[in-house]
């Protein structure tokens, strides 16, 4: 993987991104705004599952309101993240924080897909306002913690050596 990262960092695209001073800060800003939108979308749904907000609205309505924001922001976040990774591939592949973040991100995406399908099944079965189970409440709390961990790990990428020391992958 390191050999691929070294090759990628020497490509004209990577060099162009690295040498254009305004691209990285712009992409980082957009990336951070998108993760905020993703997090707030999931936070609203999770808090609805927990009965803390929007208790008067059916869960499928809350999901349908926030899912488009979640998926759109996730797509933009993936695109900006890809370009950021192309700009510094060696730093990414040697950062334990990066790999942990990507692993949690995969779990978060699968979780969101599963939740959306579960809501759709409940609506198809005629449950206009399905009551979240105890398991759903635990998963709602886990979802909040998951997205917080993703945000923290994303920020830690820049400080990976200092944070993980001997666990750093370089």
Task: List its salient traits.
single chain; 170 residues; mainly alpha; elongated
Task: Explain what the structure shows.
It is elongated, with a radius of gyration of 19 Å. The protein is built from eight helices and no strands. With 170 residues, it is mainly α. The relative contact order is 0.15. Helices cover 79% and strands 0% of the residues. The longest helix is centred in the middle third of the chain and has 29 residues.
Helices and strands in order:
Elements: H1 2-9, H2 12-19, H3 23-49, H4 59-87, H5 89-93, H6 96-124, H7 134-156, H8 160-164
Helix pairs in contact: 2-4, 3-4, 3-7, 4-6, 6-7
- The outline comes out as elongated
* Share of helix, binned: over 70%
Strand content: under 5%
Radius of gyration of CA atoms, rounded to a whole number: 19 Å
Helix/sheet category: mainly alpha
> In terms of per-residue confidence, which ranges show pLDDT below 50 for 5 or more consecutive residues?
none
Q: Give the strand tally.
A: 0
Q: Give the H and E element order.
A: HHHHHHHH
Query: How many helices?
Result: 8
Oligomer: single chain
Return the average pLDDT rounded to an integer: 90
């Amino acid at each position: 993987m390191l050999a691929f990262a070294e090759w990628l960092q020497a490509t004209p695209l990577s060099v162009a991104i690295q040498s254009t001073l305004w691209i990285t800060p712009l992409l980082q800003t957009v990336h951070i705004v998108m993760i905020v939108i993703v997090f707030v979308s999931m936070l609203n749904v999770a808090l609805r599952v927990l009965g803390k907000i929007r208790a008067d609205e059916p869960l499928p309505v809350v999901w349908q309101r926030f899912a488009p924001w979640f998926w759109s922001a996730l797509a933009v976040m993936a695109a900006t993240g890809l370009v950021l990774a192309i700009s510094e591939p060696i730093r990414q592949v040697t950062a334990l924080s990066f790999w942990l973040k990507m692993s949690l991100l995969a779990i978060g995406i699968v979780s969101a897909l599963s939740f959306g399908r579960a809501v759709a099944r409940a609506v198809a079965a005629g449950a206009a306002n399905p009551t979240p189970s105890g398991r759903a409440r635990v998963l709602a709390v886990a979802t909040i913690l998951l997205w917080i961990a993703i945000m923290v790990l994303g920020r830690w990428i820049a400080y990976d050596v200092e944070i993980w020391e001997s666990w750093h992958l370089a």
